[in-house]
Amino acid sequence: MGTDEIIKVVDTNVGIRMWQPTLESFPLEVNFDRNGSPIGTSELTSTEQLKISQGPAIATTDNATIKQIRAQDILQGGVNSPIFSKQILYELRFLLTEEECQFFPIEIRCRDGWVKDRFFVVRPLIRETCIDLEASDVDIISSIGMFVSWSKLVEAQGCLARCSIARDKNSQIVLISEKFFHMVEKFEAASKVFVPLSHARSR
Predict the structure, then answer these.
(1) In 86-132, which ranges are E strands?
(2) What count of Cα atoms within 13 Å lies in the side-chain half-sphere of residue 201?
(3) What pLDDT was estimated at residue 199?
(4) Neighbour-count burial of 133, counting CB atoms closer than 10 A to its CB (0-12 exposed, 13-18 middle, 19+ buried)
(5) What range defines the domain where residue 131 resides?
(6) Which regions of the chain are under pLDDT 50?
(7) Dihedral sign, Cα of residue 198, residue 8, residue 1, residue 176
(8) Number of domains in the chain
(9) Residue 38 to residues 76, 100, 172: CA-CA distances in angstroms?
(10) Residue 186 and residue 10: Cα distance in Å, rounded?
(11) Is residue 57 within 8 Å of residue 79, measured between CB atoms?
């Protein structure tokens, strides 16, 4: 491989983006069913492999129909992780390994029935220090040693060198590589919910 080719490959992975959905991003409200789901949010956001037999996870929506939900490819379900359709998983099939990410099935109870076998919770299985705490301005909760709010986030250089998706060690933030983003950006809402760190807004 020549020098120009090496530079081109590296350039496709410059920068990282974070998962930060907003109400404006998702007009259809979907909520994780904390009482009805056989698996909890703490398990879904852990970095341990889960047995598929433990699921599926359950989410509900009061304002959307089966047709409306099935028309989506990305959902926010209150699990602090993206929810992707099978179509997106197909796009990512050659990028992500079983060691770095698990797709856990989730079913959506709509106002007129169920959507099954279409959506999956994207579960990063790797934790990396993705945020440079010294260069960032974050509010760390001392009791848990993590931050949940910030006014500025700065990327820790090389944090996704060995993977394309990870959960930050000092928060619950999910971050993806630019290569990951380029593979999903054609799907509606992707550019709204995966934002550069410089554009990220604290909740």
Answers:
(1) 101-110, 113-124, 127-128
(2) 6
(3) 85
(4) middle
(5) 3-199
(6) 1-14
(7) positive
(8) 1
(9) 19, 24, 22
(10) 22
(11) yes
